[in-house]
Amino acid sequence: MTDLSKLLQAKMPLAAWIIDVEQSSVPCCNEAAEALLIGSLKDIKLGQRAIPSGLRERLSLHLASLDIGESLPFKWPFTSKDGVEYQVRGSVIALEDARKGLFVEAHPVSHYDAVSVVQDDSIIVHHAGLLAQFRSLSFAIFDQYGQYLEASEHFIAHFGVIQHVRDLFAVSGAANSFIRRLAHQENLFQEIRLATQNGIRWHKIEVSYHPSTNMIYLLTHDIQEERDHEVALYRLNNYDGLTNLPNRNLLYHQLESALINARKRHRQFGLLYLDLDGFKVINDNFGHRVGDELIQRVAERIKDSIPSGACLYRLGGDEFVVVLENTNSIAELESIAESIMQNASNTYPVAKMEMMITASIGIASYPQHADNVDHLLKNADAAMYRAKSMGHNMCFVYQNSMAENIDAYLTLGGGLRKAIEEEQFILHYQPKIRLPDETVVGAEALIRWIHPELGMISPDQFIPLAEESGLILPLGEWVIRRACRQLQEWRKAGYPDIKLSVNLSSRQFMQADLVDMVERVLEETGVDSKYFELEAH
């Protein structure tokens, strides 16, 4: 400390003092500093003068990165009680116990220095007061070469101690681009990722170059939370929350892009429209949690079954679409569909059960089957409906005749519930005859739909729709009740007792209260159960 005291005295008449940053104190100063600092420091205790905590934190950030003998990269302003302005400079020294401290000296600032600082690096004093005023702004000043000069407290707390503007950048390429633009003395406004004390984060930055001072002013605003919110909103609007697959919005975007590329390059692209067979049965009998888990497993299985260049989308419910750009043939799409069906039909471990489910797939391709996105989707859907109407686990390629079928499908779907309510159905009875004596021993009930506009509709057209929509249950109960009433009518008419059979779908056999419902109908109609039987088809 004796050597430091001599050094302090040698600086007279300049005010000079020592700052012990770690102890937040001023252990030693010369006479000029004693006079200058009167009233500017806090309580004097044991010959030590406490420094403000804000200044201590600021100096600590810089001190940690500097070696003994190096100067602080900034100066700060000081005004004496009589109004004289100074700029304070500091350099790193060694204190006791191998600790770092600062040797500082105050230089008076002339009027010329304060106003016309172009030729001197004391320009920072001119702006230091401004930086101190904006505590919530992340603002920094650099020289024309990008060397750090000074920054607001908020900037330092956010980015830490830096030596050069390139230290802010998370990617060296971005830093190099930024430096090149600075060399052209450009003003910048952009969004970019910067390295902060809390990791790499998105920022809006505004850079202004002032040729009169050869200084660069950088204003930064952390927008990471805004970016996170935008990403979350984008995912909410464009991705399925259950499977994390892209949804209908992104499907349309890709199809429009694929259409433009295909037209430009005279290429083909195709899509597969998938609908799970009997998924509503699982939802109704096991609940939506099990149904949701099954959908997730199915989505994973489909993704594993398609080529790496294909994209899978979930439209909602149990509907999926696979898009494959730059296809070579319809056969290529059929091969993918066969792979999906083969893998999808294997068992799924769901809710500690082994479940099975199949898929019906419709195939359509541009330009063979449609010349725009909407028609392509509609035609693939029509092909899927044809596959579903022919049975489960099947795929069909679109044909022009299917367009009429899909319109009929939509028409029938809208009227099926009303048809059940208004009993637009009739039962035909196909007799069962014992061949030796040609005696009628039984009959089978066959349902037909008498549509008020379309006329008679066969079961092949409306039973698959009833199964998929869940209306097969009320329709099945109507058939059982009507068949039992017919048995009683024949009995009252004096005909011999015969056994009447009714066909039920697998969906109806899974109905939880099927037995209770049949017993109730038999009791209401007075039919003996030995004359009534149910068959699966």
From TrEMBL:
This is Diguanylate cyclase. It comes from Marinomonas rhodophyticola. It is an enzyme of class 2 (transferase). InterPro entries: Biofilm_reg_signaling, EAL_dom, EAL_sf, GGDEF_dom, Nucleotide_cyclase, Rev_trsase/Diguanyl_cyclase. PANTHER family: BIOFILM ARCHITECTURE MAINTENANCE PROTEIN MBAA, DIGUANYLATE CYCLASE DGCP. It holds the Pfam family EAL. Residues 267-400 form the GGDEF domain. GO terms for molecular function: diguanylate cyclase activity. Residues 409-537 form the EAL domain. It comes from the Bacteria. Keywords: Nucleotidyltransferase, Transferase. Its EC number is 2.7.7.65.
